[in-house]
Write a structure and sequence with these properties.
alpha+beta; six-stranded mixed sheet; 443 residues; elongated
């Protein structure tokens, strides 16, 4: 609920209670957005539709092969802008349906990429149909607000004394002063109707755009298959890299120490008869090296799958992780069960990497971790009060995204300059071993 601004006079503040103020500002903002969207739609969509038709016709002459991809990219840029605006203004998310652009493609391949993509023709239908719906869903409700404001401000009454042909509402023209004064009760009906209706019509326009601009079921499935194929390749590469790292760590660390232990034990055996003290010293060194090798093996295993994760589950592992962070960490966990081990491991390391990034790079003073489960998805939110400006394509966050993508998970980052930074991660999964109560706490 929006608080009332302090600059409003006290009599106005008594009338405009917080709910009324919220309703008023919501309607006015929706009306302004509807007008801006209508202007953009009528200007750009008509122009782009004409250009698309002309460039398609010119394909016969060969020129269209160059023009069609350019115009189609322009249409996609405008459609993407509408996707972002409508998502921000109405909350209606419209996924991008386009096929990936071919790498190092010539003009003929670009032309085929555009004309064979079903999303191109759905964009064209959107160009045409959106123009038809602009008047009904955007202009008319916003005009109702403007017309109501005109009546409330008494413009018809003022113009009655200046222009003899002016009218308002059902009185056109106004033949006497009484009809001019009746603009106020009419406006008192029109303005609330416009303020109430406009947020809904703006959302209806967003739903209409979603119907045409979002991927079809087949296209969404194809995009998901492409994404899974790409993430599978990245996961295989990442696993190969991890295996090489483990092999290198074993070769250079624990294996080298175990070889040294074996050599020292062999030397001790040779010295045992003729120099027992030297043999004892070698055995002591061998015991020390064996302890180091064991510690390195434990660290290596902990990096693959932490023992606390296997013993206490994701909630206990995250609680333990929070205790090791040199910052205050609030932990709020509500999990009715445990995910499968691979998903649990991916979730734990994603949270750990996110927290590490916050500690190392964000200059944060406080971190909060929230875990929950809803409708078949494990939700993880890590928030810090640092300096912000985190880039989703950075090395650390990109690695987290790859780890989650292997399980068809997603990650989004909100990090305006100056902070705070919020990393939201989701993993589709099923839970087992129901719990009787959630856990939460502060570390």
């Amino acid at each position: 609920m929006n608080p009332l601004p302090t600059w409003l006079p006290e009599p106005v503040r008594r009338v405009l209670t917080p709910p009324v103020w919220t309703w008023l500002t919501r309607g006015l903002l929706a009306g302004l957005r509807s007008v801006l969207l209508a202007i953009g739609t009528l200007t750009t969509n008509i122009t782009l539709f004409v250009l698309f038709v002309v460039s398609t016709v010119l394909t016969v002459a060969g020129v269209g092969i160059f023009l069609v991809p350019l115009v189609a990219l322009g249409v996609r840029a405008v459609a993407d802008l509408d996707r972002r605006l409508l998502a921000q203004w109405t909350g209606v998310e419209i996924p991008v349906p386009y096929r990936p652009r071919p790498a190092n493609a010539g003009i003929w391949r670009l032309y085929r990429w555009v004309v064979t993509d079903p999303a191109t023709w759905r964009d064209l239908a959107w160009l045409v149909l959106s123009i038809q719906f602009v008047g009904l869903l955007l202009i008319a409700p916003a005009a109702l607000i403007a017309y109501g404001i005109e009546g409330i401000l008494g413009v018809p009454v003022l113009l009655y004394f200046v222009i003899d042909w002016y009218g308002y509402g059902v009185f056109w023209p106004m033949d006497n002063l009484a009809e001019a004064l009746l603009s106020w009760p009419q406006a008192a009906v029109l303005l609330p109707a416009g303020l109430t209706l406009t947020p809904h019509t703006l959302r209806w326009f967003a739903l209409f755009s979603q119907w045409l601009l979002a991927p079809t079921r087949a296209a969404a499935l194809a995009v998901r298959v492409d994404r899974l194929t790409q993430t599978r390749t990245e996961t295989v590469d990442a696993q190969a890299t991890e295996l090489r790292r483990i092999e290198r760590d074993l070769h250079d660390g624990a294996q080298a120490r175990l070889v040294a232990v074996s050599m020292k034990i062999g030397l001790a055996e040779e010295l045992l008869a003729r120099d027992p003290e030297a043999a004892l010293r070698l055995m002591a060194q061998a015991r020390e090296h064996s302890g180091m090798a064991l510690a390195e093996l434990r660290d290596l295993v902990r990096g693959i799958h932490p023992p606390v994760l296997a013993e206490r589950g994701l909630d206990g592992a995250v609680q333990a992780l929070a205790l090791t962070v040199p910052l205050p960490v609030d932990v709020d966990i509500s999990l009715p069960g445990r995910p499968l081990a691979p998903v649990e491991s991916a979730a734990y390391f994603a949270i750990a990497e996110t927290v590490t990034n916050a500690v190392k790079h964000a200059r944060a003073l406080h971190i909060s971790i929230r875990l929950g489960y809803d409708q078949g998805r494990l939700l993880m939110v890590v928030r810090d009060d640092g300096r912000g400006g985190a880039l989703p394509d950075g090395t650390g966050l990109r690695g987290i995204e790859r780890r989650l993508a292997a399980f068809d998970g997603t990650m989004s980052v909100a990090s305006p300059p100056g902070g705070p930074t919020t990393v939201t991660m989701e993993l589709p999964c099923e839970l087992s071993s129901p719990r009787t109560s959630p856990s939460s706490g502060t570390a």
